[in-house]
TrEMBL record:
It comes from Mytilus edulis (Blue mussel). Keywords: Membrane, Transmembrane, Transmembrane helix. The keyword Transmembrane applies. This is Uncharacterized protein. GO terms for cellular component: extracellular space.
Length: 681
């Protein structure tokens, strides 16, 4: 991406004095900006009453904003982007989280400083379904005869798709319908000359036995069979037994354990959901009574490093299982705990080339869940027009994933299941891509609700982080929203009534600082609400989060923390140059350490985009958040440098954000560190 928009305007200082009986105060509003992309002028003060404010100048630095517990800000932009849009309003709240140790401002999603960077009314992206000429009903694959004639199709065949991506032997040709037994299908249709004219892909629901019960069921079956039974007879009887499982209630169905339905929408912040996810938001809160977590702060940079804490309760850097060249199979994921408790498990993700455990890791060598959709999406990507396309042969990738999720919920309605669904294609690159997810998500969850498929289900709709690059990201609003993903939690009404104390805590936590670690412990809690297990890095959202929780308490690195108190624009060129050189040296040292084959160019500084001093309320945690532009490749990087009193210098101590798009610049390397900073030679 190119340089962020330059802000250049004069200093404005307004002063006035007001005499009271015992106190005189000076009201000062200092508005500063000089070639900075982290634009603090996004907060439009209509009326300010500040009873505790400090103004200081050190060298050429000016303090432009301070949040503290005695600040009372009345701002139109905090009240919502539209006076009639109730979903955007937060009542009299001016901060999403407002405690002594953490104040997260409630910013306007349509602020004037970013409005010109947004597509306010995006055109819906529609897929051409004229090629989608086959469909499945009751284990039978049918041809749509009308579309068949229109596409000049003579006959079709299908091939099963297996876990490792290999396709099986082609079926016999069919012209109307054919019975199927496989879970994933690749359908090829040919014209009268024998030329391939259409490809379709399907997921067919197949009943399975939970691993907890599988061995027991097999042993009972083996005891009841004659030793002389043939292998084919055994196979047929087992298939029959598997089909009966879908209609049988498990022993634990009488307990209060809930199904788990997780819907992760990549790069979706709470603020962006106020722009493009309004119908779903309204339905979640007004019809379903879902709870929104307003202080949900991400823990790390991209999808993998945020989802690992969500799914394992640990940082990726602490897990040796992620460093194996053999894959990530040895990691302990939350779905395994549910599997051990008799749940069937599902993992679906609509972008396999950049999948959560495949983009910088080596993926799974064995199927990780009972239902695993990667083979379906892998073959769709191979045959589509482009890996970034959101349409797969007439259906959007998210539509396919939602249909799969619904089919599982319907067919497993008498069992317990854990379903993880990750939508990336629509939202990973563009803010407005979320608009295409709005009605699609609304239609899916309303259909689930109206068909009583959420009566025994915990549903979370959330983001891993906000959009991580682009022009909006290079503003103050973008910087904040990238760190605050969306999170809605739904629980059925009977559960809310029975566990009212837990729900009280959950509602209290809506305005507390929370993280992906807390979601991990919430999922653990749902397996046994009466038992308090050991807590390492997070707190279940059914337990009250301390009001005075800090980023340090929540294991949020300062670089990602949204509870900042002092934000100071640094205009001192000497300071900026020193900090930028430290960051450049750090990036090149990473290349030297990781790029053993010397595939990447050394980076040089083009310019300092912005430099902001960040200080916690106590003043003990000091840092500088700097954004630089580098060459080759015009990469834009953001990092928080901390002051080390022992050495008297600043060092890069946390992660580094890349604010410009990767493109193909780093395709020559693998690994999360190199992918982020490498410019291939």
């Amino acid at each position: 991406m190119g340089d962020p928009p330059t802000r250049s305007f004069s200093w404005i200082i307004k002063t006035s004095s007001l005499m009271c009986i015992l106190l005189s105060s000076v009201y000062i509003f200092l508005y500063i900006g000089s070639n900075i992309s982290l634009d603090f002028s996004t907060q439009k003060y209509k009326e300010s009453k500040i009873t505790s404010f400090s103004l200081r100048a050190i060298g050429d630095s000016k303090e432009v904003h301070q949040f503290n517990s005695t600040t009372n800000v009345s701002s139109k932009s905090y009240d919502g982007f539209n006076e009639n849009n109730q979903s955007a309003k937060q009542g009299s709240w001016k901060f999403l989280v407002d405690s002594e140790n953490c104040k997260i401002p409630d910013l306007d999603p349509f602020d004037d400083k970013i409005k010109d960077l947004l597509i306010l009314h995006p055109e819906p992206y529609k897929c051409d379904d004229s090629d989608f000429i086959t469909y499945i009903q009751n284990d039978t694959l049918f041809l749509n005869l009308t579309k068949k004639a229109r596409q000049h199709v003579s006959y079709c065949r299908f091939k099963p798709i297996y876990f490792n991506g290999i396709t099986g032997k082609a079926s016999e040709p069919f012209i109307y319908f054919i019975d199927i037994e496989d879970e994933f299908l690749k359908v090829e249709c040919f014209d009268h000359s024998g030329d391939l004219v259409v490809e379709n892909f399907h997921i067919n629901f197949k009943p399975k036995i939970p691993k907890l019960y599988e061995a027991d069921d097999r042993s009972k079956f083996d005891k009841g069979n004659n030793k002389n039974d043939t292998a084919n007879s055994t196979k047929n009887n087992m298939n029959s037994k598997r089909h009966s499982v879908a209609d049988r209630k498990m022993d634990f169905a009488i307990t209060d354990r809930l199904n788990i339905m997780l819907i992760m929408i990549d790069s979706t912040s709470r603020i962006n959901s106020l722009r493009y996810f309004t119908n779903t938001r309204r339905y979640l809160t007004e019809t379903l009574g879902a709870v929104e977590l307003l202080g949900y702060n991400k823990l790390a940079d991209n999808t993998m490093v945020n989802m690992v804490p969500f799914l394992t309760g640990e940082f990726d850097k602490n897990l040796t299982c992620l460093k194996s060249h053999e894959g990530v199979d040895n990691c302990s994921f939350i779905w395994q705990k549910y599997s051990q408790n008799g749940y069937l498990t599902h993992f679906g993700e609509d972008m396999t080339f950049a999948g959560t455990f495949h983009y910088t890791l080596n993926g799974f060598k064995e199927q990780p869940t009972d239902y695993y959709d990667r083979p379906f999406y892998y073959h769709n990507e191979k045959s589509s027009d482009g890996v970034a396309d959101t349409c797969f042969h007439g259906k959007s990738s998210s539509e396919s994933l939602y249909q799969r999720m619904y089919d599982l919920a319907y067919n497993l309605r008498n069992q317990r299941y854990f379903s993880l669904n990750i939508h990336s294609r629509n939202t990973h690159t563009y803010l407005e891509g979320l608009a295409d997810m709005d009605n699609l998500t609304l239609d899916t969850i309303s259909k689930l609700y109206e068909n009583n498929l959420l009566n025994n289900t915990f549903m979370a709709i959330f983001g891993d982080h906000g959009l991580r690059f682009g022009e909006v990201r290079q503003t103050f609003v973008g910087q904040l929203e990238e760190r605050l993903p969306m999170l809605f939690l739904y629980l059925p009404e009977w559960f809310r009534n029975k566990y009212s104390d837990h729900m009280t805590n959950l509602k209290t936590n809506t305005r507390r600082l929370t993280t992906h670690f807390d979601m991990f412990y919430t999922l653990l809690d749902l397996l046994n609400l009466d038992k308090k297990g050991p807590v390492k890095r997070g707190i279940s959202l059914f337990r009250e989060i301390p009001r005075d929780r800090t980023c340090e308490d929540a294991y949020i690195d300062q670089h990602w923390c949204t509870c900042n108190y002092h934000l100071t624009v640094m205009d001192n060129d000497t300071v900026k140059n020193t900090l930028s050189n430290i960051l450049i040296e750090h990036l090149n040292s990473l290349l030297e350490n990781y790029d053993k084959e010397t595939k990447c160019s050394n980076l040089t500084l083009v310019s300092v985009v912005s430099s902001v001093a960040v200080t916690s309320k106590s003043g003990q945690d000091k840092g500088h958040r700097i954004v630089i532009k580098t060459e080759p490749g015009n990469g834009v990087f953001e990092s928080t440098l901390r002051y080390q009193s022992s050495s008297g210098s600043f060092q890069v101590k946390g992660d580094v954000s890349r604010l410009s798009k990767y493109g193909d610049n780093s395709k020559c390397v693998k690994g999360k560190t190199l992918r982020k900073i490498c410019f291939c030679i």
